[in-house]
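Dear colleagues,

For the upcoming journal club I promised to circulate an example of a predicted protein-ligand complex. I picked one with GLP because it came up in last month's discussion. The inputs are reproduced below in full, followed by the predicted structure.
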Amino acid sequence: MKEQRFATYEEMSRQAAEAIAAVVRAKPDAVLGLATGSTPVGTYRHLVRMHREDGLDFSRVTTVNLDEYLGLPGSHEQSYRHFMEEHLFRHVNVDPSRTFLPDGLAEDPAEEGRRYDALVESLGGTDIQLLGIGLDGHIGFNEPCDEFVRPTHAVDLDPSTIRANARFFASESEVPRRAITMGMGAIFGARRILLLAAGEAKLSIFEAAARGAITPRVPASILQLHPDASFFFTRDRGE
Ligand code: GLP
């Protein structure tokens, strides 16, 4: 696992976008594992710029996102589908039919999890997986728990995660209590992992994930075992 520190959010975002662009240039039909949250917004901004200015071509790319809130349709303003459309998909030439997220309206989340894992497997896994990290160490929505969960699965969100994500909703009561997330199997199966963290508040969990004990109490810590994982950190939140 490689750790890199950046002076600014802008610089971290540029480097993350460069890493993703390098994968797409080397393999035009790459499978990109994508993430939501405020942290990767700068990375997406740079990818959009690279598409516009340098002709970075997404026409043969496939994207698979980590997670989605359960109970929200993709058209909902706070759905992760909507987030991805706003920050990346509609600004680049990705084929909309090749952009995948778990279905937040799935009637049977366990079945949806199996379908999603089969999809990722049929694509041959992801070439690069972009990740943020929650204040409690979660990746995707793999919250701290007693054991690492391998398949894509439904989760009850931690009260701290609901509180942290309330900033995107009109009130905390509107934040969905459940989500469906890629499990550690599909995340860890990525050929390359890029985890981003920004801001002083993330420093202690970042260090626990990068150098602390490998434990499902800090879900991101398992990435220490990945053969090609990079952890990027900046104190600058970029606001
Ligand atoms: C959400 C997402 C995670 C993300 C985390 C941190 O809970 N499911 O994928 O990493 O928030 O978000 P932020 O980058 O806004 O701090």
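Two points we might discuss: The mean pLDDT is 97. The two ends are 28 Å apart (CA to CA).

See you all on Thursday,
B. R.
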